[in-house]
Every structure is written in C-alpha cells, then in structure tokens.
Design a protein that fits this description.
Structural class: mainly alpha
Mean pLDDT: 78
Helix content: 55-70%
Order of helices and strands: HHHHH
Radius of gyration: 25 Å
Low-confidence stretches: 136-142
Distance between the termini: 82 Å
Shape: elongated
Largest sheet: none
Strand content: under 5%
Number of helices: 5
Length: 142
C-alpha cells in the first residue's frame, strides 16, 4: 500500500534568490519564478531574501547620497525630507531671521560640498581643479 508522504522539494539556487532580491524583485515574483509558495521561500531562504533587500537599499541610498553630495539639488531635497525630517509648509513666509539662517545653511552646504569634492579629487589622480589652489571645483548653491 502506498503511503501519503510529503514530497521533498529540491534545493533552490540561493545565489539567484539573493540576486533577484537585491535587484528589487518581490517575494511573490521570486516564489512564482521557482514554482513555490512565498511562505516556503521565506521559511527556507529568508536570509537570502532579506540580505538581498538590504543590499538593494544600501546601493540605492549610497548612489542617492553621492548624487546629493555632487550638488544635485533634487537629491539633496529628497534626502533631507526622507532622512532628516524636513517638510514643506504651505504659505510659509521667510522672516529676516529665517533668511539669515538660510544664508548660513547655504554657506555651510557650499563648504561641505567643496570639502567633499576636494577629498574626492585627492583620491582620483589626474582630475583638474579650478586653479584656486584648493584642488576642488567650486559649486554654488542657489
């Protein structure tokens, strides 16, 4: 008489699971690709899925950070809203004190960008500077 046994599933390619998760493919799509349930995939390969997801987030966050430091204002704004809690307020007026603070923030940001570019240029040989002796190309923040 035949017994009703659970069939053992063959092992899945852990590297492919990690790679798919690190490229942003969702759990349901990975499970469908391998022909298993999302629950099975999460239970047996949860580490690979989580590590891949974290890798994707770190990679994108790093690129966003570098883009912001390179002077892209929209990346700076996104970073400050998402990570620093900055918010836009409707109808806000800039007072004299607010304008002084904005000027100070602009100056600090310009110094930080120049410092970052200078340190970046020091690590990359053959990169031209603007001739002022600082070794960095000046960026102005408006």
């Amino acid at each position: 008489m035949a017994r009703n046994r659970k069939r053992k599933k063959p092992p899945l390619d852990e590297r492919l699971i990690y790679q798919m998760a690190s490229m942003g493919v969702g759990l349901l799509d990975i499970a469908r690709y391998f022909g298993v349930t999302p629950e099975y995939l999460k239970r047996k390969y949860g580490y690979e899925i989580e590590a891949g997801r974290i890798t994707a987030n770190v990679t994108i966050a790093n690129k966003l950070y570098e883009t912001a430091l390179d002077g892209h204002v929209s990346a700076m704004i996104f970073w400050l809203k998402a990570r620093a809690g900055w918010r836009e307020t409707a109808g806000a007026e800039v007072s004299e004190v607010g304008e002084e603070n904005a000027t100070r923030v602009r100056e600090m940001l310009e110094r930080f960008i120049n410092y970052y570019q200078q340190s970046k240029n020091n690590t990359q040989e053959g990169k031209a500077d603007d001739g002022d002796g600082s070794g960095a190309t000046d960026i102005t923040v408006q």
